[in-house]
Design a protein that fits this description.
Number of helices: 11
CATH topology of the largest domain: FAD/NAD(P)-binding domain
CATH architecture of the largest domain: 3-Layer(bba) Sandwich
CATH class of the largest domain: Alpha Beta
Largest sheet: 9 strands, mixed
Strand content: 25-35%
Distance between the termini: 9 Å
CATH superfamily of the largest domain: FAD/NAD(P)-binding domain
Structural class: alpha+beta
Radius of gyration: 21 Å
């Protein structure tokens, strides 16, 4: 094998290329990224949290890769001078009804190998976060924040030192299998590779289809919108403050994040985006919206969660409703304390029956490996995911 082609220059594609250079130094690694710089989509639009693996089902790929991944990421940041901070977080039970679910998280975190988890009564909560609400909290000391743009830049440097290449403005327009591997067609020409790895994120299902994988699942883009806490009120949040997840809602819920370069972010919600790269309400791509609306799984999902879906839409247009959600965690926050911030789009893999794919999902084909679902904690676990990809490719070849 002479050349490995990786489609997608987000943090997972870059981490995968970096790990190939370390563990399989023989083949040349080439990353194809359609934008003019790396990390422009999910990598560059997240809140920069280092997730330790608290929420994920023990034994799942998510749990395994998150726990390993955060430790790898911290080590990588330390070795490469990337700004990060292990500040810890509180998972807050807003009412007594939420305490049993919080305790389930405590058991799950322990099963996943997290260190130092502590259940805090209200007085102990206030020592860490004086303005927090709720009745009890779970302290997760291993979680933190990081500069993922800095991580991506350091990975590019590492790939190039290893002899690899990151080609930007190289969007993939077609894939053609040959007797020896694949021809990757881009606007800049055709490129022959011996093995193909698809890390295309928001477009991974379309890239996989180019490579002969039936699109039984579909990427449904959910936009997560954030508010920023005004500077004079940022003292209300010292670290990370998260809710206990609601089992009636398929996403985590709004939370507070202290950002690595300063400031505090609150969010996100989750609404259907009208474009796969739809970071504002005005963004619209007819083909992307048609792709979502003609997928039966989306309608089954909406029928399963009608009240929650409608509430998310209303909250997207109402600062007051958004603030009410935040007040469950920090009661003293007011509408005047928050201002519209940025947004990200989650590449959520959905099945035809309306189920969200909760774990990382791979599809293996001849001389090709496709990563078809890599939601949170994908960024945190990117180096561990890269290791997983290399291990799978070693077995396949």
């Amino acid at each position: 094998m002479k050349t490995i082609g990786i489609i997608g220059g987000g943090i997972i594609g870059l981490a995968t290329a970096y790990r190939f250079g370390q563990r399989m130094p023989g083949p040349r690694v080439v990353v194809f990224e359609k934008e003019n710089a790396v990390g422009r989509h999910q990598t560059g639009h997240n809140s920069g949290v280092l997730h330790a693996g608290l929420y994920y089902k023990p034994g799942s790929n998510k749990a395994r890769l998150a726990v390993d991944g955060i430790r790898q990421m911290i080590r990588f940041c330390s070795e490469n001078g990337v700004k990060h901070e292990i500040c810890g977080k509180l998972v807050v039970a807003a009412t007594e009804d939420e305490v049993p679910r919080m305790m389930d998280l405590y058991e799950r975190g322990n099963a996943n190998g997290l260190a130092g988890l502590r259940v805090l009564e209200r007085e102990a909560m206030l020592e860490i976060e004086p303005n927090v609400g709720g009745v009890k909290a779970l302290r997760v000391p291993e979680e933190g924040i990081v500069d993922y743009a800095g991580v991506s830049a350091a990975m590019v440097q590492g790939i190039e030192r290893q002899g690899g290449e990151v080609r930007t403005s190289a969007g993939v327009t077609g894939l053609r299998e040959t007797a020896a591997g694949w021809v990757v067609e881009t606007a800049g020409g055709a490129h022959e590779v011996d093995f193909l790895v698809n890390c295309a994120g928001l477009h991974c299902d379309r890239v996989a289809e180019m490579g002969g994988v039936p699109r039984e699942m579909r990427i449904i883009p959910f936009r997560g919108e954030y508010y920023l806490i005004r500077p004079e009120r940022q003292h209300l949040v010292r670290h990370l403050i998260y809710p206990v997840p609601d089992p009636a809602f398929p996403f985590l819920g709004v939370h507070f994040t202290r950002l690595i370069h300063g400031g505090v972010e609150a969010g996100p919600n989750a609404v259907l985006a009208f474009a796969r790269e739809g970071y504002t309400k005005r963004d619209f791509v007819a083909a992307d919206l048609w792709d979502a609306l003609t997928f039966p799984g989306l309608w089954r999902f909406l029928r399963r969660y009608p009240a929650v879906s409608w509430y998310e839409i209303r909250r997207s247009f109402s600062r007051r409703l958004f603030c009410e959600s935040l007040q469950r965690l920090v009661p003293s926050i007011t509408v005047d304390d928050i201002a519209p911030g940025g947004a990200g789009v989650r590449a959520q893999s959905m099945l035809p029956n309306g189920d969200l794919v909760q774990d990382f999902l791979f599809a293996e084909r001849r001389r090709a490996l496709h990563l078809l679902n890599a939601p949170s904690p994908g960024a945190t676990a990117s180096l561990a995911i890269g290791d997983e990809v290399v291990t799978r490719v070693e077995k396949m070849t």
